[in-house]
Amino acid sequence: MFQKAMALLRGNVRVRAESRFPERVLNICSARGIAFRDPAFLGATALAFSVDRRDWRRVRAACADADASVRIERTAGVPFLLGRLRRRGALLAGLALCAALFAANACFIWDLRVEGNETVPAERILRVLAENGVRRGTFALSVDPRRLCNHALLELPELSWLTVNVRGCRAHVVVRERVPKPEIVNESAPTNVVAKRDALVTAVRPLDGEARVLPGTTVRKGQLLISGVVETKGVDAPSVSARFLAGKGEVCGRTWYELSTKIPLFRTLRAPAGEPVRAFSVLWGENRVKFSIKEAGNLAGEYDKIICRKPWTLPGGFALPVTWVTETYLPRAAVRAERTRAEAETLGREALEGWLRDRLGADGEIVSARAASAVQGDWLLVTLSAECREQIGETVPIPLA
């Protein structure tokens, strides 16, 4: 492969020689140091072989000494191509202009990609970069990652680090999000644990402080469960009658909920209301050239809009500053569809159970649940009665003043 590439670079000539003794041509070429490739006998009196362009005159002289006729079958390679283009000035100028445009295009950024973001939207990061001078069409050598990081982080406090790596026409924006500072909790502050809702206590596990309820006890919301004020007791009657502690612990209990919601006995669907309409445009850098369609600007009512962007690239991933944009408009009309009572009751129950699970958290669970429903006009009232098991303790500070 490498030898073929070098032969094309120097220019390759395929020669056909005819003689009574064609093998003498090869012997004379070898004796005179002429390198030949791919010899092939074409009969008893003819053979073909390849030589470099610079050796063609020597081959012709050698064939004359061997009383052989020689002619060129075909030529290939860069020198012959440039020789043909030399007589076509306009084509050569066009190729030179295209090469210059491609070289100039490689000095600008036409594609930006954001990496490393999870919670911060990429659109917001690109908007801040555009305000700081990095957008499509920016001169690549003018990007200063250090200055850009210092200015962009002031507007993006959720990020701890940002840099821009430019590779050809593409800029890779690499970010690292800031780890939120943990909340500082005063572990020594005196606190109590109280009930956050009515419940039947099933287990009490005090970690610090004194338990004030026993399993099997019914408690009301706000009732003291674990006290952070502990009376000191001793035979010598200490001078300090009570100690203030950080009341901690877990109190598990059974709780009951009755939740209600209304679900409509109908639903509104968006059905197709006509043929889709498409509009096309070309993005050149930050500029847009629209190919307007009459129907695209006169759509009445509701419609869905689908935008498809297709950047133009050359083989090898070389990005061009051109993006073909197709906008598809799908007309829609609102259509009312009836919903059965069973479907509405299922939707209501799922919604109420989902809300209840979110409220209970990871430590709670629904032990049993029962749903009932009643029709009220075009609506269905769904009521969920549920028994749950959850952690009912809530830590509250003890006022010392």
Could you characterize the architecture of this molecule?
With 401 residues, the chain is of the alpha+beta class. The chain has helices at 2-10, 23-31, 56-65, 78-85, 89-105, 122-131, 145-155, 341-360; strands at residues 12-18, 37-41, 46-52, 69-76, 111-115, 159-167, 170-177, 191-195, 199-208, 210-211, 218-219, 224-227, 229-231, 242-244, 248-264, 266-272, 277-284, 287-291, 302-314, 318-338, 365-376, 379-391, 393-397. It has five domains: 2-82, ACT domain (Alpha-Beta Plaits, 2-Layer Sandwich), CATH 3.30.70; 111-177, Ubiquitin-like (UB roll) (Roll), CATH 3.10.20; 191-252, no CATH class; 260-266 and 339-396, no CATH class; 274-334, no CATH class. The strands form six sheets. It has a five-stranded antiparallel sheet with strand order 11-9-15-22-21, with helices on one face. The termini are far apart.
Compact description:
The chain has 401 residues and is of the alpha+beta class. It has eight helices and 23 strands. It has a five-stranded antiparallel β-sheet with strand order 11-9-15-22-21, with helices on one face. Strands 16, 17, 18, 19 and 20 form a five-stranded antiparallel β-sheet that branches. Strands 2-3-1-4 form a four-stranded antiparallel β-sheet.
